[in-house]
């Protein structure tokens, strides 16, 4: 009789220690954060320094043995073809 991976009796913890799925989850979360930050920087939503700080904090959190509390990420732009909002012009252009 084969084990059904969707069965409630099937457990990845039987191998002992941290499972590969935990490591894979952390790697995927880190990769998704990195991609989201790259998109945010490329659209001018955040600075490179802010992205570096967030990436460092994410790496530190993911490297800890404890599971971090889920944090809500800002939504990605719905229309990637839309231009980033322009900075307001402090002085009107002469005519």
Automatic annotation (TrEMBL):
Compositionally biased intervals (Pro residues): 71-95
Biased composition (Polar residues): 56-67
Region (Disordered): 56-95
UniProt record, GO biological process: cell division
Keywords attached to this entry: Cell cycle, Cell division, Membrane, Transmembrane, Transmembrane helix
Residues annotated as transmembrane: 27-46
Source organism superkingdom: Bacteria
Identification of the protein by name: Cell division septation protein DedD
